[in-house]
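Re: weekly structure request thread

Next one in the queue (359 aa):
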Amino acid sequence: MTKKLWFQAGVGILLALLIVKYFLEIKSLFYPIVALLSAIFVPLLAGGILYYATEPIQRFLEKRKFPRWASILTIILLLCLAVYGFIAVIVPPINAQINNLVKTAPTLANELTNMVNTVLNNRDNFPSQLNDAINSVMDSIQSYAVSTSKFLVQFISSIVSGAFVLILVPFFFIYMLKDHEKFAPKVYNLFSGSRREWIKKTLAEINDVLRNYIQGQLLISFILATIIFTGYKIIGLEYAILLALLAFFMNMIPFIGPWIALVPAVVVGLLQDPILAVWVCVITLVAQQIDSNFITPNVMGKSLDIHPLTVITIILAAGNIAGFVGILIGVPMYAVGKVVVKNIYEHRKEIRSTATKNV
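Done, posted below.
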């Protein structure tokens, strides 16, 4: 029985739970390690995203006989030019829209308050089911406002740590560009024989999964944000650049992100002209149909091969466990875990097949 896969998997799970249990009980002993890992996690994550985003450029340059130092210097110069272009071209209209939003915020708040008061004053004329729905929405809005205020306090308190992160990100990024081929060999060279080949294959597949996911999500987000910005400009929606930027970052979250970005756009449309809210929904629906039928299948292909329901479940679970960072990294971490489990299964299958042939 001890040689059965289910028995070994059960023992492994129990041991992992025991390790976690005792780790939590003596967490003060490991606090310096946890503090160090939590301090470098965000800059390491940001550096990794930058590396995978610019890795195709480095590959392109080095195929044309650029030495490593020249390719790194070229990438840094290109990033500096991109940041300068963003500041010169995008920041002025964004700044103007932010100033306009600050000036009109009291008016927008009054209009929203009047709309809510109108609904509440006439609620006696509504069916009971509609009143229940209104109460539920009001409770949700209140809880959302409380959570938003807490988030703003946390955001302000994290500005100092954010400066520390900005200092560390370039170091991780440049190190990855310089020595990215050395990581995997340092790991699998610790082993020998078939185990060495298995670890080498697994690390290569993990690298492929992370590259495909990060590069694909960045490209998809950029295309969708461009489509949404174009649509908002056509219908004359205010704060189009700000809403498109929000859509770009929210589209990093599969399936759920685009609909999160839809909410503020609909609110702006309702306050500007109710018909615009309808057009905002139409634009988002069209963008999502273009994404699901044309963009994602051609950009991502079947590199992750994860069912949409599984993605939504992962996002919800990761969000409850680790907040926004969990939502951001939940899907790629699941994909990495899936690669590891698949390779373990295939490795065990090969071992059994070899043992059967020897018998």
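The first helix runs from residue 5 to 25. The two ends are 20 Å apart (CA to CA).
Next request, please.
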